[in-house]
Design goal:
The complex is a heterodimer of chains A (about 210) and B (about 160). With about 210 residues, chain A is mostly helical. Chain A is built from 10 helices and 4 strands. The chains are: A mainly alpha (about 210), B alpha+beta (about 160).
């Protein structure tokens, strides 16, 4: 978060905006202080219903989407840290340079995808998984009504309907013993990665000269 | 106890099906949580007065059907159908029936009368078809509404993250 703020200040470009959306059903209480501590000046949203992940078919955080001046997507569904964390345990330094390149060159950036690449990069949910969003929305509604029994019920249904969503799993685990990065999460992650899957959405930067 | 109460409510609503009596509902759609004072009791479908339909999803019931901008879904109104019924001079519109026609996912907690609707596929035709960014309107931390389409002319880096 502080890294994105420094990049935003460095770019300082009226034709560029960051919209940062916290996928946090706990609202301000959960995510507000993180925005505050980073003294964020770009557009900041706390999305208690995970609407953006549902709308753009994103499964995990962090995820990034490039949207051009005409509202056309130029990159989507990538695991996008601004930097490495914990001595390289996760994140990388590869994404920020291509963002800089895009902001400078726009459509001429070598990192802008064509429409076919964008279309094939959009994750497609199964019909069953499409039911997960309204289920999760019910859970978040009950969570914010302090009805933990029903919150748990519908968040669990959402996870069963859309087992690909890390967001639904970890949002729920945040409020359970063990936490969002505890044994249950580790076990699931090991299983998925052991089967050749990836935890974060892939970040594949094209060969090209980001100067 | 809650389970027993749920069954009792269900039985009551089945017994009184077709009669008008107050049964409130909450409808969740995008950022909206719309309180509906009165619905037509039905075990698995959500029937609301036409004016409440518009509060839920902006569709307007016109003589030609349920309409949103250029789109109109034909709805018979001179006699009862699976989309629209008249009870004691009050018309009732089947919101879940419309959702099914639009292939919009939905789920409900019948016990509490809370109905939740997913994204309408028509909102994302251009997303899947040509990679157009689906529009959204969400409040920022100060409560101001942020609409993606208001940023036309700028490049937008949309980032998701979470505290968990």
């Amino acid at each position: 978060m502080p890294v994105w703020q420094s990049i935003y200040e460095e770019l300082n470009d009226d034709s560029f905006e960051i919209i940062s959306v916290a996928q946090d059903s706990g609202g301000e209480e959960a995510a507000g202080s993180i925005f505050d501590d980073a003294e964020v000046t770009y557009t900041s949203i706390i999305d208690v219903n995970h609407h953006i992940s549902a709308l753009y078919n994103l499964l995990n955080v962090p995820s990034g989407v490039w949207i051009d001046e005409k509202g056309q997507i130029a990159r989507i569904n990538e695991g996008t840290y601004a930097t490495t964390h914990y001595d390289g345990a996760f994140g990388n330094d590869d994404y920020v340079p291509i963002v800089r390149d895009w902001v400078a060159k726009g459509a001429d950036s070598a990192y802008v995808w064509d429409r076919d690449k964008v279309k094939e990069s959009i994750f497609l949910r199964s019909d069953e998984a499409k039911l997960a969003a309204p289920a999760f929305r019910l859970g978040s509604y009950y969570f914010n009504q302090d009805n933990d029994v029903k919150a748990e019920k519908y968040w669990t249904i959402a996870q069963e309907l859309d087992p690909n969503s890390w967001n639904y799993l970890r949002q729920d685990l945040q409020y359970e013993e063990g936490g969002s990065a505890g044994p249950e999460w580790r076990e699931r992650r090991d299983r998925v990665e052991g089967a050749g899957g990836s935890y974060y959405a892939p970040l594949e930067i094209e060969d090209g000269a980001a100067d | 106890m809650k389970g027993i109460r749920g069954i009792a409510i269900l039985l009551c609503s089945m017994l009184f099906n077709g009669l008008i009596h107050a049964q409130s509902a909450v409808v969740l759609y995008n950022e909206r949580a719309v309180a509906i004072e009165q619905t037509l009791p039905d075990a698995t479908e959500l029937w609301v007065k036409p004016q409440d339909l518009t509060r839920i999803n902006d569709f307007v019931l016109k003589p030609e059907g349920a309409c949103l901008a250029e789109l109109c879904i034909p709805v018979l109104q001179d006699r009862d159908s699976d989309m629209y019924v008249t009870r004691q001079n009050q018309g009732w519109f089947n919101v879940t029936g419309l959702a099914d026609k639009l292939q919009q996912a939905h789920m409900a907690d019948y016990q509490d009368g809370v109905w939740s609707f997913g994204v309408m596929p028509l909102e994302r035709q251009a997303f899947f078809g040509s990679g157009e960014a689906p529009d959204f309107t969400l409040p920022d931390r100060d409560g101001n509404l942020v609409r993606l389409s208001d940023f036309r002319g700028k490049k937008v880096l949309l980032l998701t993250w979470a505290s968990w």
